[in-house]
Fold this sequence. Notes:
Elements: H1 7-15, E1 19-21, H2 22-27, H3 32-40, E2 45-48, E3 51-53, H4 58-65, H5 82-93, E4 98-99, H6 101-108, E5 118-123, E6 134-139, H7 142-145, H8 157-167, H9 171-183, H10 189-197, H11 205-217, H12 222-232, E7 241-248, E8 251-259, E9 264-268, H13 276-290, E10 295-299, H14 301-306, H15 308-320, H16 337-340
Parallel strand pairs: 5-6, 9-10
Antiparallel strand pairs: 1-3, 2-3, 4-5, 7-8, 8-9
Helix pairs in contact: 6-8, 8-9, 8-10, 9-11, 10-11, 12-15
Amino acid sequence: MSVKLPVECRELLEVQRGVISRKQAIGCGLTGATVDRLARTGRWLVVQRGVYSVAGTAAGYAARSADRSADLSASLSADLSREAMLWAATLRVGPGAALSHQTAAELNGLYDEPSSLVHVSVPEPRHIAPPRGIVLHRSSHIAEATQPNLLPPRTRIEHTTLDLAHQAYTFDRAFHIACAACQRRLTTAARLRQAMAARAKMRWRADLAAALGEIAAGVHSLLEYRYVRRVEQPHGLPTALRQARVVVGGRTRYIDDLYAGYGVCVELDGRQAHPDDRRWLDVRRDNSVAAEGLVTLRYGWAEVTEWPCATAAEVGRALMARRWPGPLRPCGPDCTALRAGSGSRQSTTFVAP
């Protein structure tokens, strides 16, 4: 026997991509016995306990929902859309829940691939057993962390980013997440700092606060951040312009670190080795800026993280050759920067420890 769904039920299904909870269906006017019969006969697909799919795919539902008088329970498909699955997870967990962590990162554009498990945050006082396929997180600030104008409910990008950073086992991973959120223009370093200040608990708080300052100044990668924190700042080098825009031969180029007053560029590349075409592209780029009077120094991970003192000495010599007054200062009692940079014609040899 066909069941005519109330208008409120059809409207809710349209918003929720064909997914509805038992509580919602009864609230729309169906009886509990009717919901049970629809599920028992297979006309409503049980996705989670107490959550049903009335129309399989979002596309199929949209076609049937064009006619408001249609019986939307006429057919079912187990081939749920991703958004329908996320709605089902949120409805299964219950009121106040919001998609968070890796799943919110997927929806907010921070991650490019869907998470294998669905992550949902609930208010901290609630205690429920995690349903199948769902990772539960408890949060004392989920209400203010939830984005008010997006469906299905998900945490704001700032809270999503900080949740993932807090979850990170290393600072490098936490930095990568925060940097990616800013580089993709999903948020800003200032907004992340503000959201972090409102949190009682935050792993990597001090390190991340310092990193956000450099991200705001234009640092775009972990290697660039390491250069600032291990080479430039500890050795008293002047502060470079980050991601400096220069026009060479009518073409716009961006320099990782430009010491504008001295015509010295520092380019940083985290790849272990370049393909031939990329290497020649770098050569052409360095040659083009050299023709404009800029000297380019290029460094990778080893020079920045293993031999920062020798790298600072080399940058310091290039700057001094162009009238930087100095001084280059030691980063600590064992620093070799002054010894390596003591002579303007002295060469620097990197020796692995």
